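Entry type: protein chain
Record version: 2
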Amino acid sequence: MPTPPPTGPLVTRDTLTADLRALGVRPGETLLAHTSLRSLGWVNGGAVAVVQALLDALGPDGTLVVPTQTGHLSDPALWSSPPAPEEWWATIRATMPAYDPLVTPSRGVGVIPETVRTWPGALRSAHPQTSFAAVGPGAAAVVEGHAPDCRLGERSPLARLEDRGARVLLLGAGYDSCTGFHLAEYRIPAPLVEVGRPVRTPEGPRWEVVTEVSISSSEFDTMGADFERDRPVVRGRVGAADARLFPLADAVSYAERWLAVHRPRDEWIVNDVSSAGRS
């Protein structure tokens, strides 16, 4: 049978740029983007055209930031999609390639962040599981100093983005993907969890375990709906996608208050990013 023609709308770099500007993306700002390529329609040029449009809307003085997470670099004992046989665990830990910001591909965050990661001039943070990549004059200030024992807290790019007055763009993505909410988890009483991953050393790769804040996005959609009800969130369409635009600082401060009420300490769900990385 013949292949059916693509369904629209037909989206181009120029139409995306116009839609982003109409939404309110400003030249010169710092933008943390969470994206879904498939939600936009039929994009002529795919992820490359989307990144071009984002950079066009931001202009030469703006900085684009995306999550480039690598949750698959994690303890196989915690994998669930699919699980790894227990008899493999020791070998997996001993032979898993360590994170290299120049080489290790992102996983579970979509093709647009992976395109940004490899963009000319892109810089990437050093955390082996929850890195961010950035393009633009503010890229180094955002990604430098990402501590290996601070996935999404005060010593991560999220705190640097908050300091810079960055805004968050949800481009066809839901609040469950809003990494900024995780920064709030570091600012309220929270349980700790041991996180394993491979690391590079002068002697070669080795397995390490660090103690981290437990994080979970399980209630983020509900919290996002409340945030949107209570705080000014710009909504619109970019291509065929629903889009939302709001200050990161607003989202973090709201999440701090919301989580303190709606997530009692004994109801935390531990999520060390490994299961998401295996999806």
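Comment: The longest helix spans residues 248-262.
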